[in-house]
Design goal:
The protein is about 45% helix and about 15% strand. With about 375 residues, it is of the alpha+beta class. It folds into two domains: about 260 residues, Ribonuclease H-like superfamily/Ribonuclease H (Nucleotidyltransferase, domain 5); about 60 residues, no CATH class. Helix 3 links the parallel strand 8 and strand 9. The longest helix has 28 residues. The chain is elongated, with a radius of gyration of 28 Å.
Length: about 375
């Protein structure tokens, strides 16, 4: 299947399959390299497949040893891996919608070296007939102990699996995958304009990558390369791809630092507390208390859940005064008045109000619960002497 596919792709480009005499677009190779010359640093690993390596300093990259991936996904709860074994990856493709017609033409895979630098290796295919070699190489690189990406779980990996199938290559085996998009949304959703990697790179990380090309223009840059050869925008695509992996690695480390309590970036305290709780960090309680004191009433319910799991019943009930006056909040405050304050009359008043609020919301289950509570409290008060 793979050979047949490569032949059809070659014919569609007006060129011969690999190993045949070049014609059409493939004839544009020159003594200076492919497509009238890629930038310096690129080496042809096999016909049509090019690689280069780029190194970046990581100001926060001296972390060594194991890291806990629990904050990145509940499926990774308790999963620990050496940070040097994680491959940070990003693909550049011919479209943003996925599907069988979308092809990846550029990949970057980064790893944190012992000295703290990020080494990024890029793979570029210079025409469709090189796809088999490209996909096979990228698949091998991603056979790492663990992966990290930004929305790679929803886009990059499914696309790679599709291209493997199209080329008759076995799909990559599942790996522990930390998709940084998900904790980034918990931390920074609502804090910045959006949670795109570019926005967080500028706002949360304070990075300036310099000249760049918008992601939406990346596919056309490759198509123009196929038609006319090397041009400045494609060089921007190369640096864009490598810089995305640098931003990904730095954001990954920032999430870890925040969740482990080593730094407190500008972020949503409720999201931070949720990730800390997921990772088993007891500092989550302090973050929620600070948020509550700072005027975040939304912090009360996660803090109550934390106390519930810890069996801290009285402390949980004491937080009821912070709850909003909706059906659930009124019912919880009724419990507090009965069991802690010992004021059954006030507890009855709140239970009746909770029933009315639940009926107004169409919540028959909570209305029935509040009604039974009110009836029990009323019977107790009526039975008291005097």
């Amino acid at each position: 299947m793979a050979s047949s596919l490569r032949s059809r792709l070659a014919l569609s480009r007006g060129s011969a399959p690999r190993g045949s005499a070049p014609r059409g677009s493939a004839a544009r190779r020159s003594a200076d390299g492919p497509r009238r010359g890629l930038p310096a640093g690129w080496t042809e690993a096999s016909e049509g497949l090019w690689t280069r390596s780029v190194r970046f300093d990581l100001p926060d990259g001296n972390r060594r040893g194991e890291v806990d991936l629990s904050a990145f996904s509940r499926r990774l709860s308790g999963r620990r891996v050496d940070v040097g074994d994680i491959v940070f990856f990003d693909l550049e493709t011919t479209g943003l919608s996925g599907g069988a017609g979308t092809v990846a033409f550029l990949a970057a895979a980064g790893s944190i070296r012992p000295e703290g630098a990020l080494e990024v290796v890029q793979y570029f295919m210079d025409d469709y007939p090189a796809e088999y070699a490209f996909v096979e190489r990228v698949r091998g690189v991603l056979a790492a102990p663990a992966l990290a990406s930004y929305n790679g779980a929803s886009f990059d990996l499914p696309l790679l699996r599709t291209r493997c199938v199209m080329n008759g290559i076995p799909a990559p085996d599942p790996r522990p995958h930390a998709d940084v998009l998900h904790p980034a949304r918990r931390l920074f959703g609502g804090v910045y304009a959006d949670c795109s990697l570019g926005t967080l790179e500028r706002e949360a990380l304070g990075m300036d990558r310099g000249p760049d090309i918008p992601g939406a223009e990346v596919p056309e840059a490759w198509f123009r390369f196929l038609r006319t050869g090397m041009h400045p925008d494609l060089d921007l695509v190369f640096s864009h791809n490598a810089s995305d992996v640098l931003a990904l690695a730095r954001l990954f480390l920032l999430v870890l630092d925040a969740v482990e309590g080593r730094c407190r970036p500008r972020c949503d305290p409720l999201g931070l507390a949720e990730l800390m709780t997921r990772a088993g960090n007891p500092q989550a309680e302090g973050v929620l208390k600070e948020a509550l004191d700072a005027g975040y009433p939304e912090a009360v319910r996660p803090l109550m859940r934390l106390y519930w799991k810890a069996g801290r019943r009285d402390e949980r009930l004491a937080l009821s005064r912070y709850l909003p006056e909706d059906a659930a909040g009124l019912l919880q405050r009724s419990l507090y008045e009965e069991r802690v304050v010992r004021d059954d009359a006030r507890a009855l008043e709140l239970a009746a109000a909770a029933r009315e609020a639940a009926l107004a919301d169409g919540d028959s289950v909570r209305a029935d619960r509040a009604g039974r509570r009110a009836a029990r409290l009323a019977a107790r008060l009526a039975a008291r002497p005097g």
